[in-house]
What we know:
The chain has helices at 4-15, 21-28, 32-48, 71-78, 88-100, 105-112, 117-125, 148-154, 171-188; strands at 19-20, 53-58, 61-66, 103-104, 129-134, 142-146. Helix content is 49%, strand content 13%.
Amino acid sequence: xxxxxxxxxxxxxxxxxxxxxxxxxxxxxxxxxxxxxxxxxxxxxxxxxxxxxxxxxxxxxxxxxxxxxxxxxxxxxxxxxxxxxxxxxxxxxxxxxxxxxxxxxxxxxxxxxxxxxxxxxxxxxxxxxxxxxxxxxxxxxxxxxxxxxxxxxxxxxxxxxxxxxxxxxxxxxxxxxxxxxxxxxxxxxxxxxxxxxxxxxxxxx
Length: 205
């Protein structure tokens, strides 16, 4: 009889990206609850043994990643540079997508009151948001949602764990949101990326 935990570990290592729990269930011929239980067991093993890897749950997907405490060494070994920080407008755009997804760029611009084409494109390049289809409307505009990288950045496994959205119509709102996310991350600390790394760039529209 196969060891489900070991098979999941092997698949996630080989995938190098997130894998749907439903797909793992189909491959192994067991229900999704058993997959989730095995993943939790693997998570506990990695954590208790202070291994260099971690298993993340991202909504209905699983992913293997490096332990956040080893990020400085990984960065030096691979000569990785931190991406430029995101500006306040970029964080505002990210918040609109996260809390109201799926949304079109026009909807983001309606909420923010300014053109957001550059910001939406940049967030897509960073992997924080992604296209997820077309709106059945004239012109069939693209719909956007948050990607797995967003959940990893926030240190959460589900969008339901996001803090309540404050009033974003003034500067205090974005500060409150950043404070709430910083507090959320300090409690979870699941990923190498911190919100402080995506909130301080010179402003753009």
